[in-house]
Design goal:
InterPro entries: AAA+_ATPase (IPR003593), ABC_transporter-like_ATP-bd (IPR003439), ABC_transporter-like_CS (IPR017871), ABC_transpr_LolD-like (IPR015854), P-loop_NTPase (IPR027417). One of its GO terms (molecular function) is ATP binding. Keywords: ATP-binding, Cell cycle, Cell division, Nucleotide-binding. This is Cell division ATP-binding protein FtsE. The protein has a single domain, classed as P-loop containing nucleotide triphosphate hydrolases (Rossmann fold). A 6-stranded mixed beta sheet has the order 6-7-8-3-9-10, with helices on both faces. Strands 2-1-4-5 form a 4-stranded antiparallel beta sheet, covered by helices on one side. The mean pLDDT is 95. It starts with a strand and ends with a strand. The chain is α/β, with parallel strands linked by helices. Bound molecules: adenosine-5'-triphosphate. The site of adenosine-5'-triphosphate has 12 residues, from helix 1.
């Protein structure tokens, strides 16, 4: 699902992480940990094509990161769903219309199919009854559920979640973890950056750490 060989990651001319070798199998749930500024987001951005791969080789969901061009990125983003710390919902429209907007933007045309898909992803995150709500009428946990539903719209093979519980209280964080675990059980590979060691203890998975400019597996 993900393979990085001898990858070095730069922000402008600064070397952030060097010589990364990373292998993520289909169906894995992996954590990415490390202090603020250690490079977690930079690594995530490299994986979703926001930061070009300058050194080394790598692939994700069948896309060669070295050969990735601007025009390929929309196609890559259909095969990986991205979830952020701040939920990034459009506040001027309902939950349903947030999801409809993404489907239309990614080429869906058939109204009936779009309706079925929206209801299916809302059901997966237990938000089917809240499609008519505006994002600001929802709690943080509910907004994150909608953001996860949005990430699922195009049947991604993988979810990249960059501190998805960073803005949530401990109880809500656990609820969101249950949602992610459920999605993972259905076969979607997950890489989740987090600061939350309590969550890692409660939901143990292979953990990858960024520290001192390198990336390694924690055992
Ligand atoms: N757009 C940018 N331009 C220049 N430097 C950047 C940019 N974004 C991040 N950096 C630098 O890259 C380093 C790694 O940042 P990154 O955001 O990847 O860390 P992080 O581990 O995700 O931190 P956090 O946990 O705070 O999100 C930091 O030193 C940061 O200052």
């Amino acid at each position: 699902m993900v393979q990085l060989n001898e990858v070095s990651i730069f922000q402008r001319e600064n070397l952030i992480l060097s010589n990364i070798n990373l292998f993520i199998k289909k169906g894995d749930f992996n954590y990415l940990i490390g202090k603020t500024g250690s490079g977690k987001s930079s690594l995530m951005k490299t994986l979703y094509g926001d930061l070009p791969l300058q050194q080394g080789t790598g692939s994700i969901v069948g896309f060669d990161l070295k050969k990735l061009r601007e025009k390929d990125i929309p196609f890559l983003r259909r095969k990986i769903g991205i979830v952020f710390q701040d939920f990034n919902l459009l506040n001027d429209r309902t939950v349903y219309d947030n999801l409809l907007f993404v489907l239309k933007a990614t080429g869906w045309k058939n109204k009936g199919e779009m309706d079925l898909k929206i209801n299916a992803v809302l059901e997966k995150v237990d938000m089917k009854s809240k499609g008519f709500k505006m994002p600001f009428q929802l709690s943080g946990g509910e907004q994150q559920r909608v953001a996860i539903a949005r990430a699922l719209l195009n049947n991604p093979e993988m979810i990249l979640a960059d501190e998805p519980t960073g803005n949530l209280d401990p109880k809500t964080s656990i609820e969101i973890m249950h949602v992610l675990e459920e999605i993972n059980k259905q076969g979607i590979t997950i890489l989740m950056a987090t600061h939350d060691y309590a969550l890692i203890l409660k939901f143990p998975h292979k953990t990858i750490k960024c520290e001192g400019g390198i990336v390694f597996e924690v055992v």
